[in-house]
Amino acid sequence: MKAKKRWLYFVLIMLNIPLGLATRWAPQYFPTLVRIYGGDVFSATCIFFGIRFLYPLKSVAKVSVISFLVCIAIEVQQLYQAEWAVKLRNTPLGILLGHGFLWSDCVCYAVGTAIAAGVALLLERLPYFRIS
C-alpha cells in the first residue's frame, strides 16, 4: 500500500512542478491572481506532496503541519541577507529559496497546504489507496 501512495504523490509532484514554474516563467497565460500568488501556492502543494511521498503513512494533519512549517522556515530564511546567501539566491537553485520575505507568501503557503491536504484526503479515499 505504501508503494501505491508513493506513486500517487510522485505523479502529483511531477504535475505540480511544471505548473508552479509556468506561473513564474510564462505568467501571461494566467489570470492576475494566479500570476501573483500561484507560484507560492504551488510551492506549498509541492512541499506537501514531497513530504507525503517520504512519509505516506503519517496522518494528513501531521504532514500538513510539517509542510507548512517547512514553507515558513524557507520564507523566514529570506530575512537573512548575508552576501553569500544573496549570491546563492541568485543562482538557478535560488528559485527554491526565494528573494524577499512577504507576509502574503505565508498566506499562500497556508492556502497551498490546505489545497494539498484536501487533494490528499480525497484521493486517499479512493478504494485503490485505502489501507484496510
TrEMBL record:
Keywords in alphabetical order: Membrane, Transmembrane, Transmembrane helix
Pfam families: DUF2809
Transmembrane segments: 7-26, 32-51, 63-80, 100-123
Presence of the UniProt keyword Transmembrane in the record: yes
Domain of life: Bacteria
Matches recorded under InterPro entries: DUF2809
Protein name: DUF2809 domain-containing protein
Organism of derivation: Chitinophaga varians
